[in-house]
Structure formats: structure tokens, C-alpha cells
Specification:
With 296 residues, the protein is mostly beta strands. The protein is 7% helix and 50% strand. It is globular.
């Protein structure tokens, strides 16, 4: 018997509601709505690790669980300590984090920040490197083809490089266009960064000797607002736009790029993390880690 239009509509609505409920059920509250998850990463075994920009804690959520457990406690580091970037490095069993601690009695507020590496299994500290200067913003990082860790310093327009096996990073690039540098990732062996203040995307040329060149401005066919955490997957860049509440996929073609919005209506999304067929989003304004299907 043919299905009537009314019946077809009822089925479609039911499927939509079921899908929406399933998507909602997958969202994970990180401690509470005020936890401000700024960055997240996925460790081996599907363990979700999430930092807090409102507390001195890093949380982990075991695969199949919806409960966030405290994994790292930095409360002894000083009042107001919090975390930005998170990156699980399975090859070295290391969790890379950016820790920020306000300098007391400074106006405007200055922060001392540190790159900290912890054992992914035990949370024991492995490496600590304090960023230079009286005020810095360790924000995010990416592992390059050379196995080095590349680190952004938003406040000072710098990128640092921690060679594989080293305990001290070195200045890789300082440039005026990088004041506001935030997300960083490698796509097809090339280094890309975004600028959260000026809404820009840049490619950083690297010569055969490993030396950085002038940042190349990538023209995008539509604006991105507050580009924050950025990762590469399926030959494209995926970026969280914290000012517009969107997640966008950026397809780069030479010095130009096309932008496709894949998720809207989020409360200050600040990070993305591809994990198999799932894309995890840090929704800082809601205190949640949100999963959506991985874009093809």
C-alpha cells in the first residue's frame, strides 16, 4: 500500500526527533556549564581529554562514558591557573597542554604560560617549558612531519618549535601578522595557522633547512569570525569559529580557499578534534564536548 504524504511526513519527523535526541545524548558536560572547555583531544582507546579555561583542571572521559573525571590538577600553580591547548601524542604517550597563570596585581592582566607534557596513562609530568617573556599566551600546537611540536603564542605573535626528544623549545617564527595567532595544523605536509583577532588564515612556508618564511595570506571566499582551534582531516582544514558559533571546513587551493559551514548555533566553539567518523567540538560557552559526524 502506498504511503500517504501525511504518513511520510510523520515518519520523517520521527526520524529527525530520534536523530536529534541521539545527538543530544552524545554531548558530554565537562564538570559543569561553567567549566569553559577551551580545547580537547582524543587519546588511544577513545579517551576524550578536555582542558578547562575556568579552573586548574584537565578532565578525561573514558570511551563509552559521559562522566568527566579529573585527570590533571594544577591548583598548586597559583590562583587563576587554567588550560588552553590539548594534544594527545600517541607516538610518545604524551599529553601536551598549555597552562596559563595570571601574574598577580597586574593591569591589564599579564600571564605566565607553560608548555607541559604529561604521561597519557598516568598523568605524571614528563616535560615543562616556560614560554619566554613577562606576558605570553601558549595557545595551541601541532606535530609536524619532522615529529617536532609547533606551539603558538597568541600574545606575542610567535610560533615556537620543540624538536623531537628535546626539553626546550626554540623560536621558529615571529612576525607582525601573527599577533593573534591561535589554531595551528599541518595539511599535506604544509603548516597553516589562523589569526583569532584579524580573522585570517596563513600558510607558513618552510624551506629544506627547516627555516620559516613570510606567512602567506590565504584568501577565503567568505568570512570566518574568530577562527580558533583548527585541525586537518580528509585533505581539508576544520576550524572552530568562536565569534559566530560555527564549525567550518576550509578547502585550500593554492593561495585561495573555500569555506563550508557544517555546524551552526554553538555557544563559543573553541576547538575541534577529528576521531574516526566523529568530530568532537569544545563548546566553551556551554561547558560541553559535542560530537557530530565527521565531514567527508
Amino acid at each position: 500500500m502506498p504511503i500517504s504524504n501525511a504518513r511520510r511526513l510523520t515518519i520523517c519527523v520521527a526520524l529527525f526527533v530520534s536523530f536529534a535526541q541521539a545527538a543530544s545524548a552524545g554531548e558530554i558536560l565537562i564538570a559543569d556549564a561553567k567549566s569553559q572547555p577551551e580545547s580537547l583531544t582524543v587519546a588511544p582507546g577513545g579517551v576524550l581529554i578536555v582542558g578547562s579555561a575556568s579552573s586548574p583542571f584537565v578532565y578525561k572521559v573514558r570511551s563509552g562514558s559521559s562522566t568527566a573525571e579529573k585527570f590533571i590538577d594544577a591548583s598548586a600553580e597559583g590562583p587563576g591557573t587554567f588550560f588552553f591547548g590539548m594534544l594527545a601524542d600517541a607516538a610518545t604517550n604524551t599529553l601536551w597542554t598549555c597552562q596559563l597563570t595570571p601574574v598577580p596585581d597586574t593591569t591589564p592582566v599579564r600571564r605566565h604560560t607553560a608548555l607541559r607534557g604529561f604521561d597519557l596513562s598516568t598523568s605524571a609530568q614528563k616535560i615543562r617549558w616556560n614560554l619566554p617573556g613577562d606576558n605570553s599566551t601558549c595557545n595551541d600546537f601541532a606535530i609536524g612531519p619532522d615529529k617536532a611540536l609547533y606551539i603558538t603564542d597568541t600574545a606575542n605573535g610567535r610560533i615556537y618549535k620543540l624538536p623531537a626528544g628535546a626539553s626546550t623549545a626554540e623560536l621558529f617564527l615571529e612576525h607582525r601578522t601573527l599577533t593573534g595567532v591561535d589554531g595551528i595544523t599541518f595539511l599535506n605536509g604544509m603548516l597553516y595557522v589562523n589569526n583569532v583577532i584579524f580573522n585570517k588564515l596563513y600558510r607558513i612556508p618552510v624551506d629544506a633547512a627547516g627555516k620559516a618564511g613570510e606567512p602567506v595570506d590565504i584568501w577565503m571566499d567568505q568570512p570566518v569570525k574568530g577562527p580558533d582551534g583548527m585541525r586537518a582531516a580528509n585533505g581539508k582544514l576544520i576550524v572552530a569559529e568562536n565569534s559566530s558559533g560555527r564549525i567550518s571546513v576550509i578547502t585550500v587551493d593554492g593561495d585561495k580557499a573555500s569555506v563550508t559551514v557544517i555546524k551552526e548555533g554553538l555557544k563559543t566553539p573553541t576547538a575541534v578534534e577529528p576521531a574516526g567518523d566523529t568530530l568532537w567540538i569544545a563548546e566553551r560557552g556551554a561547558g560541553k564536548a559535542v560530537p557530530i559526524p565527521m565531514p567527508k
